[in-house]
Amino acid sequence: MSAISASAVNGADSVKRVDTVNLVHYNRAQSMSSVDRLKALGIGGVSPTLKYTKEELADYIIRNKHLLDNPGTNQAGGKEDDSGLAAQIGKLTQAVVDMQNQQTANFTKFTESQKEIQDKIQTIKEENKQLKTSVNNLTGIVASQQRYLESLDSKERAKNLIVFGVPEAGDPGNLLRNVFSKLDCEDETEDFTFSRCGKTRNDGGNRPLLVSVKDGKSRNVVLSKSKDADMASIGEEFKDIRIKKDVSPGVRKEWKRLGAVFDEEKRKPENAEKNVEFDKQQRQVTVDGAIIDRFMPHF
Questions:
Q1: 20 to 30 A from 170, CA-CA: which of 14, 126, 220, 257?
Q2: Bridge partner residues of 70 (DSSP)
């Protein structure tokens, strides 16, 4: 808004005023017609703050004509210095441009970083897939090697029997001959040999006997007949006798472990109405056909 300040000095016949007029809104004045500019100054007898005589108003118009006709000039008739404002606007504009450029650069960097992360994740997925394939292949190889080692070990043990329950005291050879006789397999055990397994037990328990017969066929005959026989019915002295196939400690331990898994699955309440099997041919424990555990010996 235009602001008019005046200091008045009282005289005898008239009042003289000395005023200073500041027009701040030059842009608004520039868009006005000459008549509107005069009205803004109070022509017509109405001023925003003071009353003027015709003589005073005419004098004001003459002295400030350059402001009405050429907004943007000072009272001395020179152009107002807008370079400072222009410079500030230029700096502000450049700051906005720089900020936009920085945001664009940051977004580009973020996008590149995201792409790099996605590429690394994809690489890890591919490597993981290859690793799983390699593990599966190695698992198959290990299982195959275990079978091979077991077959070699089985050949070494093909004619061996492990007999449990033979007392440490007395003549083990004589007791064995009586057992084989009762089982009706004297021909298969005609020239058997035996030895105790392991060290003497501190608890006084009976160590098993390792018995070797003439060949694998003879061993299988003894195993078959002992499996079907009720040793207690053969004789009281034979009630604790059990005859098993000779296997490596690792295989024996694994069979024992797998048997324990089978027993545990049978006892679970949730398996009460399910089919729990211990498939010794496939060497695995299953529940309704789903494999729970499998035979994995360690030599």
A1: 220
A2: none
Say which amino acid occupies 274: K
pLDDT exceeds cutoff 50 at 153: yes
Q: Provide DSSP, 172-229.
A: HHHHHHHHHHHTT-TTTTTT-EEEE-SSPPTT-PPPPEEEE-SSHHHHHHHHHHHHHS
**pLDDT of amino acid 50:** 42
pLDDT score of 137: 87
Residue 264 vs residues 103, 167, 259, 282: alpha-carbon distances, Å = 64, 32, 9, 19
Cα-Cα end-to-end distance for the chain: 103
- Of 295, 278, 296, nearest to 287 by C-alpha is 278
Q: Across-strand partners of 243?
A: 163
> Does the domain formed by 158-246 have CATH 3.30.9?
no
Q: Spell 35-60 as b/e; 16+ CB within 10 A means b.
A: eebeebbbeeeeeeeeebeeebbeeb
Contact 35, 29 (CB under 8 A): no
- Write down the domain spans for the chain: 3-80, 81-156, 158-246, 250-294
17 pairs with which residues across the strands?
8
Q: CA-CA distance, 209 to 173, in Å (whole number)?
A: 10
Burial class (CB in 10 A: 0-12, 13-18, 19+), 246: buried
Provide φ and ψ at 205, rounded to 5°: -70, 160
Taking CA atoms, 205 is separated from 175, 199, 208, 256, in Å, by 17, 11, 10, 20
The 10s digit of each residue's pLDDT in 53-84 is: 455 555 555 555 544 455 444 444 444 455 66
| Helix (H) / strand (E) containing 96 | helix 83-156
